[in-house]
Amino acid sequence: MDVRVLRYFLAVCEEKNFTKAAQKLHIAQPSLSTQIKDLENELGVDLFIRNHRKLALTEEGYFLKDRAQEIVALTDNTTSSLESRKVVSGTLAIGAGQTLAMRHIMKIIDHILCAHPDVQIRIIDANADDVEARVNNGTLDFGVVMGERPLDDFNTLVLPEKNQFVAIFNKNLSLEKKKTVTPADLSNYPIISSNQTLVSDKFKNWWGNNDVKNPVNCNLSFNSSLLAEQGHMVQLTYAGLLDKGLDNNLVARPLEPEIFDPNIVIWKKNIKLSNLENLFLNELKKSLKGEHHEAGIN
């Protein structure tokens, strides 16, 4: 498969229309249609369901879309790294879940962008399982993962900030009167938690013998809070992630016993880092040693 054709395919996926995609790509519509048809013939599958209104992806099309995004991102990252061997430029791709510890990372990124305005930053929101997979396959340069995880396949740096789990729920629930929330307090409420397997394992010990239902798993804390706002379920997430716009309806209470997750920066072992990646890593290491660079980054 030609990477150029994969870019064409992704443009059609985005526009859901050959004419609009061709205009975006600055190529003739018949040529684009032929390229996509040749790709389907090469793969032996139909990628789109075609009708007179708009295109829809087939199951095979969705599968290729995910893979094509990874291949194109890896190609772009590799090209950027090769082009930036002598100067600090290119694109830095970082994946992370939602946590206030990202302030540490964002401060470094802000300094880099101020000193090197040609640099591009891609922040990918994903849970730790997905971040690990993407760092491993090269579509992310660095990742920030939460929790005690087996990370022997990666280089790691532990951030000083820790994530404390809290329960978030509608103010009308009787739980609102409590200063802390125990497993027994939650035994009568359906739970919303993270999609990460290790989070579920962590809470298995915390629940003890209490019978708990966990019908909803979700990556994004804000979306989970919207469900908790309805007044029937309790969300378990990190402290500090309750959106201010939901303060009138929701409250957060710390768990008892307390549960914490570490924040760990990971990157792939045994690879040559670009100048930009080295800059980010060196500044991160300096910040962890307590060194401050108010004059900027050179």
TrEMBL record:
<dbReference type="InterPro" id="IPR000847">
    <property type="entry name" value="LysR_HTH_N"/>
</dbReference>
<dbReference type="InterPro" id="IPR036388">
    <property type="entry name" value="WH-like_DNA-bd_sf"/>
</dbReference>
<keyword id="KW-0238">DNA-binding</keyword>
<protein>
    <submittedName>
        <fullName>LysR family transcriptional regulator</fullName>
    </submittedName>
</protein>
<comment type="similarity">
    <text>Belongs to the LysR transcriptional regulatory family.</text>
</comment>
<keyword id="KW-0804">Transcription</keyword>
<dbReference type="GO" id="GO:0005829">
    <property type="term" value="C:cytosol"/>
</dbReference>
<dbReference type="Pfam" id="PF00126">
    <property type="entry name" value="HTH_1"/>
</dbReference>
<dbReference type="Pfam" id="PF03466">
    <property type="entry name" value="LysR_substrate"/>
</dbReference>
<dbReference type="InterPro" id="IPR005119">
    <property type="entry name" value="LysR_subst-bd"/>
</dbReference>
<dbReference type="InterPro" id="IPR050950">
    <property type="entry name" value="HTH-type_LysR_regulators"/>
</dbReference>
<feature type="domain" description="HTH lysR-type">
    <location>
        <begin position="1"/>
        <end position="58"/>
    </location>
</feature>
<dbReference type="GO" id="GO:0003677">
    <property type="term" value="F:DNA binding"/>
</dbReference>
<dbReference type="GO" id="GO:0003700">
    <property type="term" value="F:DNA-binding transcription factor activity"/>
</dbReference>
<keyword id="KW-0805">Transcription regulation</keyword>
<dbReference type="InterPro" id="IPR036390">
    <property type="entry name" value="WH_DNA-bd_sf"/>
</dbReference>
